[in-house]
Amino acid sequence: MNSVFIIAGREILLGIRNRWVLATTLILAALSLSLVVLGSVPTGQVGVGALDVVIVSLTSLSIFLLPLIALLIAHDAIVGEAERGTLPLLLTYPVRRWQIILGKFLGHVLILLFATIIGYSAAAVALALTGADLLQQSVLAFVIMVGSSVLLGAVFIAVGYLISALAHDRGTAAGAAIGVWLLLVLIYDMALLGGLAIDQGNTITAGTLDVLLLLNPTDVYRLFNLTHSANVGQFAGMTGLAQTAVWSQPTLLTVLVLWIIAPLALTTTVFSRKQV
Amino acid sequence: MKWAIAADKVSKQFGQLKALHEVSFALPPGELVALAGPNGAGKTTLLKLILGLLRPSGGTIEILGEDPAIGSLAARRQLGYLPENVAFNDGLTGRETLMFYARLKRQHADAALALLERVGLTAAARRRVATYSKGMRQRLGLAQALLGSPRALLLDEPTTGLDPTFRQQFYALLRELRDRGATVLLSSHALTELEGRADRIIIMKEGIIVANSTLGELRRMAQLPSRVVLTMADAMSVETAAQLAPTASMRRIKPHVLEFLCSERDKMDFVRRIVAQGTAIDDLEVIPPALDELYAHFLGPHAEA
């Protein structure tokens, strides 16, 4: 287990050196701060539920940005080391292959955790400084949103590793990563929506839809954040969905965790068979 | 454990390409073995199979009593490897890089720093590897391979990019390890520098081993002629010596300097006869066939497996 932490430590150090940590934190902070500025318009001077508006905005931002950042960090993790020639040497060291995967995962998730907490908290702090009244309930929702955002990032780090373990070169891995991002973040929902519109509820039942939503981690994340708080749900326009939601919060959380474990396990299997 | 590294009929195929074909050899502890052969002979493939980075298509390999494909961590802790064109993460300093590997091998930081000193990188230790020259990277690579005094050391083209002074130190380091019972297997193109350093030479060609012996044995097997160079005192002696060598081919290098090609068997006989004639010899030099010539012999078109 010690080797896992040694690998994780190196990933964090590399993340600091190649400016990933800095860049990610700055991007998330800049975008979340701009959302605060824009978000203050609809609620006006009253400021009631200001944080809830930010949560809704940040949730949408997270769905686009965090998977992208996670895939950018992760798609290179294995194939990149193989191509640069650092992997064969590492594999002759007394360290198991699953330890390498887990160590990198731990390091990358910690980088993302740091960036997300700092970046998103900047929004909450800015809001507090403007004198907006932050309801305790909203603060809790905010903390949960930040936590689940990191979880969403972790899902895509794990998916990125799988791509990295399967790809033969870095170019392919990068292409596949963008493809997966487009599919899960944009195309999946559009296709689902299109399907529903065409189908008119004939074959796709509400039950099928519920299951289909679980198959996409970004939808799981969206459901998790936009339905757990009445205030947030109201702003997100998902009140209706929240009332009919069949999936409980723990279920959604479990599915997200499964979306981390399954790709990681697959990555380890693929990586263990890899000859370098 | 009799053998430190042993291969039994090991084959490796990459698709249609037969990289190795039924390669067998066994190396005892405390031997410095050179792996020679042209590009594409299968040297790197063989090293990677021994390390367990590749799995053989057939046959078995054992290193320090373990199957490398299973890769027990205990065995790997006693293993050192320097890949061909070693690469490191450019973002870390030399010191950080070596510390990382030392931690993975459960080695003390002091040991890592001492190695950094031995390969002459102390002054550059706090610089990023990105700023290192090829020779410096190679030195760093050697330092990590030597972590934890390995009992089996596999080096792929270790001396490329090293300056002559450091080469001397490098071979001294290897001898030291070998004398402590480590098995060193190094692949190399620079055959001349292996002379007098390698205990045994394995020559590979197109995925098979064409020779596996000590240098002396290889010489006997190849039956390549030695060169006897005589510097005669006067013209008379030159004539006498020239007549004495009907079988050996002779070449006049300078007016008074003659070179004869003698087989290992005839060499002493020839020298005795020359001396017996009472010719005035100023100097006599016997040059055994160089490793490069031996190498060419074993890889030549008439070479047999």
Structure description:
The complex is a heterodimer of chains A (about 280) and B (about 300). With about 280 residues, chain A is mainly α. In chain A, about 85% of the residues lie in helices and about 0% in strands. Chain A is built from 13 helices and no strands. Chain A has helices at about 1-15, 20-45, 50-75, 80-85, 85-90, 95-130, 135-165, 170-200, 205-215, 215-225, 230-235, 240-245, 250-275. Chain B has about 300 residues and is of the alpha/beta class. Chain B folds into two domains: about 5-220, 3-Layer(aba) Sandwich (Rossmann fold); about 225-290, 2-Layer Sandwich (Alpha-Beta Plaits), CATH 3.30.70. In chain B, helix 6 (about 165-180) links the parallel strand 6 and strand 7. The radius of gyration of chain B is 24 Å and the shape is elongated. The interface between A and B is medium-sized, with 20 and 28 residues.
Topology:
The complex is a heterodimer of chains A (about 280) and B (about 300).
Chain A: H1 2-17, H2 20-43, H3 50-74, H4 79-84, H5 87-91, H6 97-129, H7 136-166, H8 170-199, H9 206-214, H10 217-227, H11 230-236, H12 239-244, H13 249-273
Helix pairs in contact in A: 1-6, 2-3, 2-6, 3-6, 3-7, 3-8, 3-10, 3-11, 6-7, 6-13, 7-8, 7-10, 7-13, 10-13
Chain B: E1 5-14, E2 17-27, E3 32-36, H1 43-51, E4 58-63, H2 73-77, E5 79-82, H3 94-104, H4 109-118, H5 134-145, E6 152-156, H6 164-179, E7 183-188, E8 200-205, E9 208-213, H7 215-222, E10 226-232, H8 235-243, E11 249-254, E12 257-262, H9 267-276, E13 281-287, H10 291-299
Parallel strand pairs in B: 3-7, 3-8, 5-6, 6-7
Antiparallel strand pairs in B: 1-2, 1-4, 8-9, 10-12, 10-13, 11-12
